[in-house]
Amino acid sequence: MRNKNLFPEKFSQNNQLPIRLVTPDFGHLSTETAAKLGLTHRLKYYFFLFVLDGHSQHTIDLDTIEIGKHELFFALPHQIQQYPATTHGSNYYKLRFDEECFSRLPKQFPFLLNPLNHQKISFSSAAAGRLTAIFEILLSLLSIADTDPELILAHVNSLLTEMNTAYFAADRKLGDDKIEKFIGFKVFVENNLTDHPSIRSIAEELAVSTDSLYQIVKHFSGLSPKEFITNRLILEARRRLYYNERTSVKELAFDLGFNDPDYFSRLFKKVTGKTIAGFFQDLS
């Protein structure tokens, strides 16, 4: 079941839809509200930043991404986002909406699972022009709090369609089937992460051979299926450590499906290059 009402109080710009758009001249939060959100937090909504001019820098899940002209950065619910201390270039659009808004769209958008493992999309001048036009329409719609939500959703749908097309543009030659299998792999891993599913069970679920699954996952992620699952588990560990420093290693290991806390600690160091204690030191 999708979570509802995840926006902070009085955050939405529409009376019936959890959504917010910000430009250099519109939609900025009050200093008090921005301070409550903080520069670093675990996202409860989808976030998009489209830069028209200049450049910006965002840190997501402790990795830093540079965003330049005609590039779009997106972040997903549950990721750890750190806002930059500086502005988002000289001209930009920032859009946020939560799962409730997303669930009301007429179709799903595979790029929001980030199957290609990059959270930055580049647009041609023509595509950037189309995105700008849609953002401007949304700006006018969200300037009035009682705008019919269906009008807003129609343009959000167009916006995400442009993003989805651009995201997959470089891999069209691979065929939709391979992309769909990789998306299926990622969804299965997300839904069964702490169960530590075997590669064979995932391959059977997706109706592919283990060799084919290996080739698909290796192409899209650069990792073997086992490495992908391990890295995802350790990423979840880093997220939880970041937000709950009192969690013991033993509790965290068990929460993530590891029966042996010592093995979990060794795996954490193997993947990150740091002990869990060293990870805490870097945060302080």
TrEMBL record:
PROSITE patterns: HTH_ARAC_FAMILY_2. One of its GO terms (molecular function) is sequence-specific DNA binding. Residues 183-282 form the HTH araC/xylS-type domain. Keywords: DNA-binding, Transcription, Transcription regulation. SMART domains: HTH_ARAC. This is AraC family transcriptional regulator. It comes from Dyadobacter flavalbus.
